[in-house]
């Protein structure tokens, strides 16, 4: 059984993902998660262990409301990494950064004040993974096949990234899931 998330100052790449690997539908749509249920204390667990959030500009432009993070259960500093901070709409609690991903992590971890920095961007997560700056990947697999959208990890021609499962007897073992079409 997987232990609850802890606030250990980790860089945590965190998403709900479709069974076929998408974290958002076309145009960053999230309506595909409607009707998905999660374990009872999930939102509280992440709201209490998150110190800051790092996201990308495309995701921010699609959902420019920091009050929507964890349904409003979390409040804290949000950092949006962008090449064009000058055309971003100023928003309370949101800092637009124009730097490399490693520097954005340094800034975010400092603001997280010992809690976790959650990465809500597939592109930034991929960059941080390549830099060795992701401490954990935390996924909640929704029982849906999207077929199109924004993948969690997309790196055509790149080398496979080996992972180790946490809270498992065999950290290299495959995870079995079983679903039926509705």
From TrEMBL:
Gene3D superfamilies documented for this protein: Dihydrofolate Reductase, subunit A
Q: What is this protein called?
A: Bifunctional deaminase-reductase domain-containing protein
Native species: Amycolatopsis decaplanina DSM 44594
């Amino acid at each position: 059984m997987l232990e609850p998330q802890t606030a250990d100052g980790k860089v945590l790449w965190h998403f709900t993902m479709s069974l076929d690997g998408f974290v958002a539908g076309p145009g960053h749509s999230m309506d595909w998660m409607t009707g998905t249920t999660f374990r009872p204390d999930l939102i509280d667990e992440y709201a209490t262990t998150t110190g800051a959030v790092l996201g990308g500009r495309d995701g921010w432009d699609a959902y420019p409301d920091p009050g929507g993070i964890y349904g409003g259960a979390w409040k804290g500093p949000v950092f949006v990494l962008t090449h064009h901070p000058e055309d971003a709409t100023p928003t309370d609690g949101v800092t637009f950064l124009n730097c490399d991903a490693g520097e954005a992590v340094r800034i975010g971890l400092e603001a997280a004040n010992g809690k976790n920095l959650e990465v809500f961007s597939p592109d930034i997560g991929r960059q941080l993974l390549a830099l060795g700056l992701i401490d954990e990947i935390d996924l909640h697999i929704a029982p849906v096949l999207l077929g199109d959208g924004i993948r969690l990890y997309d790196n055509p021609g790149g080398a496979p990234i080996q992972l180790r499962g946490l809270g498992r007897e065999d950290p290299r073992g495959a995870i079995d899931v079983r679903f039926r079409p509705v």
